[in-house]
Each structure stands twice: as C-alpha cells, then as structure tokens.
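To whoever is on call:

I kicked off a structure prediction for a single chain this morning and the downstream step that reads the tokens threw a length-mismatch warning. I double-checked the sequence; it's 202 residues and nothing unusual in it as far as I can see. Pasting both halves so you can look.
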Amino acid sequence: MNNTVSPLRCAAVIGAGTMGRGIVISLANAGLRVLWLDNNRQMLEAGLQMAEETWAHNVAKGRIDAPEAAARRALVEAVDGYPALADADLVIEAVYENLELKQQIFRELDAVMKPGALLASNTSALDIDAIAAVTSRPEAVLGLHFFSPAHIMKLLEIVRGASTAPAVLQAAVALGTRMGKVAVVAGNCHGFIGNRMLHTYV
C-alpha cells in the first residue's frame, strides 16, 4: 500500500444489530454516504426504521429540522452483497464477537475493496492483528471500537495494529472528530482501554 488513503466520502457498515445501527446513524450524521450490508434482510429493514425514528425524534426535539432528517436518511442505502461495497472508502465490520466470523468477513472485504480503502473492525476486545493477518493489506486494517449506543456515546477507541499505516490512523482520527467523537488511539491489547479499565474496576 502507498501512503495515500482515499478521502472518506462513502462508508460501508456490515451488521444491522445494535452496534451497526448506531454506527450507520453516526456516519450519516457526519455527512457520509453509507452502504449497509447484513445477510438478514429483516434486520436491515428494522435498522433502517430505527434510524428513521431516531432522526424523527431529533426533529421533534428541535435538534435538526425535517429537511436535514430527510437528507441524512437519503445518505443510507441497503445493499445485497460484498461486491456492492467495492467503491467505499471505509468499511466498518460490526458483527458479534467471533474471531473466525470476523476473519471470514475480512477475507471477503480484501477481495473486493478498492486500494486505499480503510478496513475497520468494531471489535471490543479481539486481536486486530489476527484479523488483519487474513488480508493482503494489514496496513489498511485497524479497530474502530464504538460504545453502545454508538450514535450517542462519545468515546471512540481507534485501535492501531502492528502494521496499521500512519495515514490510516490519521484518517480514522479525523473521522472521529468529524463524527463529534472523543477519539483515543489504543494499542492492540486485550480489552483495549475502556474494557480493560472496566475489567479491573469490576
């Protein structure tokens, strides 16, 4: 990989559970086009409905106006398969915590994503290097650990893998700022920062 990273205009999210929904809302709120993939179409439809309800609630509270809510909804597009994500500048995997599943997803992404795209996992504790290792571009892989609900919680852990390129890290930090998050860079250790602290506290 060269030192250039695609400007972040279009993001993709894999997973329409609680975390995926909040991440999609956060990205659309920041003005990014969002491609949303989940192999369960019902989950995807429910996620879209939840996003619409969230923006409608914000209109009712006077936080945004109706045209802004409609503009954010128009940025989100449900898609049917990995090839539809090929032109995204960033993809965030947000499925449940299973290393083998995440590795399989990253193999699929490695095969279809364009050069310069960022490949991120929302894992809260799994080894980013083990995920990056199944790709041909570990320098493009990092962790973007949002806290639930992702569209409300401010903290964003940006997890640097052993091979993560500086330009990738910088682009992720800039994205965190764009989304209004408090972005902190973490090393690749079990639990990263937040969950490691919580484990000790508990």
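Update from on-call: the warning came from a stale cache, not from the record. Cleared it. Sanity check on the structure: The chain has a mean pLDDT of 92.
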